[in-house]
Amino acid sequence: MASVCSCSLPRGWLPSQPGRVVESRTRQVPMSVSESGGGVPVSSNSSFSNLPVVVVVVPVYSGLEQTLACLDSVFADEPKRVRRRVLVVNDASPDPDLARAIREQATAGRFALVEHQTNLGFPSAVNRALDYVEHEPGWSGADVVLLNADTRVAAGWLDKLHGASQSRPRVGTVTPFSNNASICSVPFAEGCEVDSSLDVGHLDAAAERANPGHVVELPTGVGFCLYIRRECLAAVGRFDVAAFGRGYGEETDFCRRAYQAGFLHLLACDTYVYHEGQVSFGATEGDTRRLRAEALIHRRYPDYPGGLLRWLRQDPAGPARVALALEAMRGSSRPVILMVTHRMGGGVERHVQELRYYLRGFAWVLVLRPGEKGGSVELSIGSAQPERLCFDLPVDGEPLLAVVHAAGTDRIHVHHGAGFPETTWPLLNQLGLPHDLTLHDYAIVGGNPTLTTRAGRFDATRDARQADDQSDPVLAFSLQALARSAERCIVPCPEAGRVLNQALPWLTAEAHAHPDREAFGPYLVPHPPLLKEGEPMRVLCLGALGREKGAETLRDAARLARRRGRPLEFVLLGSAHIPLGREVKQLGRYQDKDLAGLLANARPHLAWFPVHWPETWSYTLSAALEAGLPVAATDLGAFHDRLGARPWTWLEAHPVSVERWLEVLMAARERLAMASRDGAVWSQKPAAAFYREAYLSKACRGERVQSVLGQERLCRFHCSYYSRGPEGRRPWLLAIAMRIREWPVLGAILARIPYPVQRRLKRLLSRQPLH
């Protein structure tokens, strides 16, 4: 774990020239103004003078705004259990404004100041501060807190860290929670830089309410804010500058030496300190130093990697992190929404994550999914890498409701019901909360999400309620019950609502575009690339193609084009559930964040969507529209709604034969080959800000009662944040089967297995989408 061995340093710490003798000088402040420069007025109160002294050491190099904010936050606190002293070490800052500001404050008696004439690095700055503390009258024998200059603290922080240091015998160091502190991080707080509700005061208060006096043993302290007991300093000594030079790993080395000397390292779960965090040496040099430091740590302490790994797997701090997150939600003024969705990924999962991100700063979001094993559910708290709590239903129904209540949940938004135990819905009904239902597919009709036949084709003349291989009456019944009691039923496009209403006349749904439409604004008017003479037209298909999305149509069209000598080049950026053959150039899977760049590199002339079912939105279509590509698509579902009247677009009425698609693509090629480009216009209706405005209008804050969940209770359901392996060997077996498909002989045999049987076999191996 590289981040554990790394030392968090103030912005701009630079390497000194090797072999140079470095001088240092000390600036002391007038004793009449501040007692030894610590910012605490001299008091005749004997009880105050008997309090232990704690020296806060702040090494400084650069970052004027961050440093002054850090110092202001330190002095805004008025400790009641300790006498605070503050020592700033200016390690030859190249910023004259910063140097001048801290000199002025030191002269005014706010703190003591040590200045280096040459930049020495973090370990040397800390050792110089420790030497100063040891020899300064009234400071000797004090506990020390090493505090990065890019941190901010809240009221009471020092008293709580001191209390944690006294909570057990032989405590060496104490580290608080933070947004950016390696193993002491709170993932829930990762967005604090852009979310004012995640300020240090709010989260520290939540930590104190959720985890009063609670501590957890750590394998090592973390240097951004490290409280060190004087007994530990006396026994262990200084940072090892000779071995670790200018930084990285020195605090881990110190903590391991302390551990060998019999001292404990604790996490103060009731304290939160904000840490901006930055790369101190530059990317290349920083990586080199980190790797060298890790190797040295592992050689010196061969038991450390294994101990760290065991700690991560056990994750004893997890329940305290969860308690902090729940209390932060409950104690805020923002609504809390419980999103309920399946665990199969795809567009539904993307919408949930997109909505969670889009609502950041406006509402809190919890997510409930089916668990990895049957009969269980998983509650996620956080965003990109959330905390997880797992419950077996119906046995753990009451604890699940208690956790949801503890967050102060105001509303439920159901996105899908596939995979949930039947007991889930009566249980959620006990919450007594209003709910919305978004229909991302057509499973509400009969359990069939695509309304397609066994051949993977949508038939508008067929009774949509007719059972087929994908029918799931239990799922359909649950969704229909949810729809009847929902305050709002939402569909992503009007055409999806029309199809649903035709199958279920009692169902009325509101059509609201997904947030990516709101966020992007008006789409680009297509400006197709010029097709050079003799150049084949590059036809791009996007995404993960199953039978319903046209994988077989792509394969057959490419083969037909080759046989007929058509100047078309077929490209798939994504994946397919069948082998496509050499006629299709496959670029492989992609991450959504990389898609725009990959599209630019592929330089397609046209995006093609040969779908066979009325999709309700299509994020791959969004990508094509955002890129301004010409589009050819089946006139079904979202494609009908989103592409109407768009220039450089070819819509074909369903069903479309492969021969007809070839004619359409050749017609598009002829038009693209024209030298002139007409001044196309596209009149687009502005996207309503539904998810930022009307959506939240019903998510009002109700009365909240504080719910105390004990650490032992949360520990029973918590899943380690650091243990996120695959679902056993089943995905591995599926991957082998997917590779075997590509072998000519075995692939031909597998292709003869009926599609519904392939689907069922795949479902046994993975719950991810079929493709």
TrEMBL record:
UniProt keyword Cytoplasm, yes or no: no
UniProt xrefs under SUPFAM superfamilies: Nucleotide-diphospho-sugar transferases, UDP-Glycosyltransferase/glycogen phosphorylase
GO molecular-function terms, A-Z: glycosyltransferase activity
Glycosyltransferase 2-like domain span: 56-165
Entry keyword Transferase: yes
Keyword annotations from UniProtKB, A to Z: Cell inner membrane, Cell membrane, Glycosyltransferase, Membrane, Transferase
Family: Belongs to the glycosyltransferase 2 family.
The name this protein goes by in its record: Glycosyltransferase
